[in-house]
Amino acid sequence: MNSQDVILGMLMKRSLSGYEVKQLFEDIFSYFYSSSYGTIYPMLHRMEKEGLITKENVVQEGKPNKNMFTITELGKQQFHSYLHSPIESDSIKSDFLMRLYFGQFVGNDLIIAWLKKAQAYTQKQLDELSEKYEVYRDKMHPSHIICIEIGIKEYRAKLETIHEGLARMEQLEREERV
Length: 178
Known about the structure:
The chain has seven helices and three strands.
């Protein structure tokens, strides 16, 4: 999976402006796919050159013109090839988990601070995803629902584990002070 596959998937439903593609990457897709803002427009340009999408300049009154991108037949074929290819293994890259793994080289107070920060961030992510799920659930395809529910359950499991780890670290910190 790469940004091209994700963009083609977005365009399967309807034409989108570059801004709308960027918004989708920042919104719902940010929970399970990471793409930098700087790659989106060059990717759209490359996809247009390869004939996977077309671009139409839409004139707007009182606003700047916008480029609307539409998937081509070649793009649809490419997207279907992606969907029928073997599923790649999930990969996790987490600075938090790496630091936590090497936490033996810092004080417990810093580990506790990391855990509290991760707890707050994960709770925020869970709250935002749950809120979006409630808003859009009735309009979602069953596969969308499954995807979002997996995300929600992963955040809940992570929170539970952080909570338990935080309790252990705080107990250890109390014992060392005595």
